[in-house]
Design brief:
With 266 residues, the chain is of the alpha/beta class. The chain has a single domain, classed as 3-Layer(aba) Sandwich (Rossmann fold), CATH 3.40.50. It has ten helices and seven strands. A seven-stranded parallel β-sheet has the order 3-2-1-4-5-6-7, with helices on both faces. The longest helix is centred in the middle third of the chain and has 29 residues. It is globular and about 50 Å long.
């Protein structure tokens, strides 16, 4: 795919999941600034209504709010039906909703792990399928799947979460090739540790090492959108994270696990 200017998105509709906080807020502001109409989907309606009001006032775009628990079974189909009923054609899908759980797998209630898997894997896949299928029929569309730097390695104390992000990255890279002949761009974004409130939601404390490596969400979101416009299959946000991802090719997996365990739990 050739590189497209940001204004090529102007006037189109973008669906952002996990839009009430973190990277979702930055995706929304960056796209709205370039006259992209938005659908915000997350659980916290009040936060999204405030964001929608701010974006309409600042940028003069249309913003729809879809309060929904995306971790509930069937959520993707309900969201798709709601937008179809409103005659909204989604040209840009930002599959951003997701969360992690910190702690040993067997010390975490399996119901919590299953809920995370439902959101990070099942709902993401269903949304990708439902909206991507329409894009392929139109022979036009863009999808950004938010994976993670942890997609490149196993991490003790984040075993299931890292596994979900490995799935997202593998899915996104494969779909990049599957959908390219149909005019659809699929890009996987792999952020490292980002100041989004992830640790609090995961039940973790931020180690001193992680604090040094933490990126602000704005440049992470910008790198994802830039890569999407450039038609890339995958992008790792931030130089230090790029180095970390590349170093995995050169080090034994046992060393990777030991290193990450020290960084995360230091």
């Amino acid at each position: 795919m050739s590189k497209q200017p940001m204004n090529s998105f102007a006037g189109k509709w973008a669906l952002i999941t996990g839009a009430s906080s973190g990277l979702g807020l930055e995706f929304a502001d960056l796209l709205a600034a370039h006259k992209v109409n938005l659908v915000l989907a997350a659980r916290r309606q009040e936060s999204m209504e405030k964001l929608a009001s701010d974006l309409r006032r600042k940028y003069g775009v249309d913003v729809l709010v879809e309060p929904i628990d995306l971790a509930s079974p069937g959520a993707a189909s309900r969201l798709k039906c709601s937008l179809d009923a409103r005659s909204v054609t989604v040209d840009i899908l930002l599959n951003n909703a997701g969360y992690g759980l910190h702690g040993d797998l067997f010390e975490t209630p399996i119901e919590r792990t299953a809920n995370m898997i439902q959101l990070n894997i099942t709902t993401l896949t269903e949304l990708t399928y439902l909206f991507g299928r329409d894009m392929a029929k139109r022979r036009s569309g863009h999808m950004l799947l938010v994976a993670s730097l942890v997609a490149f390695q196993a991490i003790p104390s984040y075993a299931a979460y890292a596994a979900t992000k490995s799935y997202v990255l593998a899915l996104g890279e494969a779909l990049h090739d599957e959908l390219r002949p149909h005019g659809v761009v699929v890009t996987s974004l792999c952020p490292g540790h980002t100041a989004t409130g992830f640790d609090e939601a995961a039940g973790a404390t931020t180690s001193a090492m992680l604090r040094l490596l933490t990126m602000k969400p704005r440049p992470v979101a910008a790198s994802g959108i830039r890569a999407l416009l450039q038609g890339k299959a995958m992008v790792v946000a931030g130089l230090s994270n790029k180095i970390a991802a590349f170093s995995n090719r050169l080090t034994p997996r046992s060393m990777q696990r030991a290193t990450l365990k020290r960084i995360v739990d230091a």
